[in-house]
Amino acid sequence: MEIFLGFVLLSFNGYHIVIGTDDFYHDTFPNDFLWGVATSSYQIEGAWNEGGKSEHIWDRFSHDNNNWHNDTGDIACDSYHKYMEDIQLIRSLGASSTFVDFYRFSIAWTRIIPDPIAYRTGRNKSLNQPGVDYYNNVINELLKYNIKPLVTLYHWDLPQSLQEKIGGWNGSDIVDYYNDYADAAFKTFGDRVKHWITFNEPWVICWMGHGSAEYAPGIKEPSVTPYRCGHHIIKSHAKAYDTYKHRYKTTQKGIVGITMNSDTMHPKNESNQEHIDAAERGQQFMLGWFAHPIYKDGDYPKVMKDNIGDRLPKFTPQEIALNKGSFDFFGLNHYTTVLVEPAKKEFGFPGDLRLQLSRDPSWTGSGSYWLKVVPWGFRDMLNWIKKEYNNPKVIITENGITDNNGTTNDPHRIYYYRQYINQLLKAIKQDGCNVFGYTAWCLLDTFEWNRGFHEKFGLHSTDFSDPARPRTPKRSAAAYTEIVNQNGFPPVGTSTTASSSSSDVQNLIMLILLCVSFFCILNE
Questions:
Q1: pLDDT of the residue at 94
Q2: What residue range is the signal peptide (predicted)?
Q3: Active-site residue 201, yes or no?
């Protein structure tokens, strides 16, 4: 290890990590800032065929052995039976008077409407009562402890019957089926749920599910299908927002938004205009694809129209009007940054972007090949949103880091949270970004989609080898609790902070522990 002015260089077996040490910002978040933690239905619930639930596309995709070691979410964390224990874990993320403010979770469509075709045609207009009871129990238990439910309506688990009968997100009828479901959820739970997210990460749904076939439903048709999927999701979101606005908002007084994921697209050569243009193009294709119609002018970004041409579906004037402004907040999932340079155009998505993506070899890694630790990219992302969409109200709906061993001694995760949350604090206090909340991903080690149980994001370890699925707090749970309790990183000299030198020593120790942990991961 060598220490230079402003950064630490650590080298081990040919790997090099450069981490800054001199720009940690001490301040607190606004008094009304919200802190939370998140999960999603298929990743934690289990009980895949219990309580009247029907099959969804991730059940089918997993049972067809498409995941790491053929893992499935059939049991996952068994939260369907252990939700009260999980809510106690949420309560533990804070002192007795300062629990986290909210818990973000998703409803499984197939648990409350097992047969959406019968529901729509009127053959069976009843909701599945065991599923309704389960979510009522979760919501009521949260509210008992003054923890707000932040509910995601769709976190990738489409009813398999809709995939087979109408083509899923590739079929235009899906808009009405989704609205039936959203309306039922608003009506059933909206007296207590005041914060709704229509979709989680539509980019992932449409590219990884319908372009690359890495995720359910496993369709590999990159030329047209991802764009058609995205078109129907945007229309579904706008219609559901309109339904809430005109049927429920006056009485329920809730708010509705959508969560989009985006890496920060950074030019590989900051002085090369072609690289700068490529980074902007990448940002528009990843985030603007869904944000531009909702948060800007109701239609797709010009760069998408120019590059995709007739393969990009067109909105009608009425649809443009419905899309535009269909939000009360902007949900953002952010994990990492990529370097961008121009490339020759290829047909279909992602070739339409004309980009070459890479990662700086000096960036610290994680348990996922794609997730590098680049804290400054988080601040850049928030400032891009501020500029592009007129500084909307933003809530960070996911942010976190993986490992592969599930250790409870996780200094790399502590470092990640401290650095990324510190960049968020700078974006709010120094740049004026309008961010009102932050969500740590994830409460538990969960079923991590096509990576099965191999990649772990949790603040709590889950022992998947034990049928009881015991949970154990990691060191990062205590670290996140400290940030929540202090509402950030209080300035030096306040009662919660010892001294500048003490803080610097703590940060340096954390850097060293981070690198030891990282190198252990590399050599497993």
A1: 75
A2: 1-20
A3: yes
